[in-house]
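User: Let's play a game. I give you a shape written as tokens, and you guess the letters that built it. Ready? Here's round one.
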């Protein structure tokens, strides 16, 4: 085999491997939020919440997420999954029987508004039922923004 044929064949092989590699990278990306089944997603999300499985719930978030929650103070805060686990672990210690019940889910593009009721027993022994609205933004199938609104008084 001449050097020219050898190099041409090698070039074709490298090109074919490059195309295959690019295809594998593209096909291996997380699914777009365009076709997400938000009902199923939030059934799992709130299932983890109600089971107090904070690690599984935190894995539904991106590595870093913008969180706005009156319990954290005013404004938005960058939170890691570890921060989310710590936040909900502290909530669980304060309100061991906390549970959420979804009222409605309203998707629009990559943003979803979830209306739900949080229920449990406050540290003083009184039962509560707190209406909450969360606006969540998704990228690559994970929550990147979780802004929660409720009366914190």
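Assistant: Ready! My guess for every position:
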């Amino acid at each position: 085999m001449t050097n020219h044929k050898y190099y041409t064949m090698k070039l074709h092989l490298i090109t074919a491997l490059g195309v295959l590699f690019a295809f594998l990278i593209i096909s291996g990306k997380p699914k777009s939020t365009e076709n997400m089944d938000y009902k199923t997603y939030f059934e799992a999300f709130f299932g983890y919440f109600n089971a107090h499985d904070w690690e599984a719930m935190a894995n539904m978030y991106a590595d870093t997420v913008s969180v706005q929650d009156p319990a954290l103070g005013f404004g938005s805060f960058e939170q890691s999954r570890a921060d989310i686990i710590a936040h909900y672990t502290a909530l669980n210690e304060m309100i061991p029987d906390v549970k959420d019940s979804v009222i409605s889910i309203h998707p629009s593009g990559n943003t979803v508004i979830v209306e739900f009721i949080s229920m449990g027993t406050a540290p003083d022994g009184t039962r509560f039922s707190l209406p909450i609205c969360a606006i969540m933004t998704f990228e690559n199938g994970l929550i990147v923004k979780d802004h929660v609104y409720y009366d914190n008084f």
